[in-house]
Amino acid sequence: MRAFGFEQHGGPEVLEHFEVDRPEPGPGEVRVKTEAVALNHLDIWVREGWPGLDLELPHVLGTDTAGVVAETGPNVQGLDRGDPVVVNPALWCGFCRACERGEQSLCENFTILGEHVRGSLCEEVVVPARNVLVRPGRLETHEAAAVPLVFQTAWRMANRGDIRPDNIVFVPGAGGGVATASIQIAKHLGAQVIASTSSEEKAAKAEKIGADDVVDYTEDDWGEQVYDLTQGEGVDVVLDSVGEEVWAEAQRFLTDGGDLVCCGATSGPQAQLDLRYVFYNQLSFVGSTMASASEFDEIMSLVFNGWMEPIVDSTFSFEEANKAFEYLEDGRQFGKVVVETA
User: Fold this and answer.
1) What is the DSSP letter of 320?
2) Residues 151-287, CATH architecture
3) CA 185 to CA 98: how far, in whole Å?
4) Cα separations (Å) of 164 from 94, 261, 298?
5) End-to-end CA distance of the chain
6) For the chain, what are the domain ranges?
7) Nearest to 73 by CA among 144, 5, 135, 131
8) The domain 2-147+310-340: what is its CATH number?
9) What stretches of 189-340 show up as alpha helix (H) in DSSP?
10) What is the mean pLDDT of each run of 10 residues along the chain (342 residues)?
């Protein structure tokens, strides 16, 4: 079957279409015919590689998937051939201490589809049946593909930040997938939401999905602008998927006892931290990755029932997968970039 990814790590030039064997579902597994796959910056980092990342080559990219059930393996119940589905890309063992207490994203064998194992940017993919949810008709396939990774990540971040209705929440990089989900979630929880982005066009879109105020992070005083918007109170929670470009300013505009919850490092991993702000203002800096199985079910229910909407910037055909990745790396999008595989 046709797939898309790379045979060696490197820049955009290593991306290509190739043929791989069609996978067969084992006990408790489902083969999904993919129809749409949303791209993530994670795909770019996997393509580039890092020390210790040991992949079966050629590697198939793709984490977020929507499609239909093609075949079920033995011992699978509740799913039938032809069911329209969305796939949770988080993979866990189910037996370690973290899994037993319901913290699957802390599993000692935790992996992510498309990162540590072959992904879904292909015709068909096999995943555990527990990772497959039947999706409602109200969501188009390309919309459903835009949900799993970013919404579960943002939902867990909101939980770890303990967002409350009286909070002021800052979401940087409002055009990113996690950020568009974070804005909607924070607003759903009743918070005042301040976002940052780089253009008036993106600012208008951020306001449309729930941001109360938006600052331009290309301006030198953007951090001061955030603080001023809080009327001198400071921000209660930062939901950060950007990384080092945010931390130096965030530690200054966080309120006493404030939290910065970080799930990524799109702008780089070397954050600057002044410990005087940390101990004197009693700040908390919290890491967050993906979500537990119950958190995934919670946020998918909210999206399925229309409380939040996946934001899709653009779609590309499978043949245009290279162009889709070029577009993603250029950073022009607001929301998700989706490749339609069928």
Assistant:
1) G
2) Alpha-Beta Complex (3.90)
3) 26
4) 31, 15, 17
5) 12
6) 2-147+310-340, 151-287
7) 131
8) 3.90.180.10
9) 200-208, 222-229, 244-253, 275-280, 293-304, 321-330
10) 97 97 97 98 95 94 98 96 98 97 97 97 98 95 98 98 97 95 98 95 96 94 95 96 91 96 88 92 97 98 96 98 96 94 93
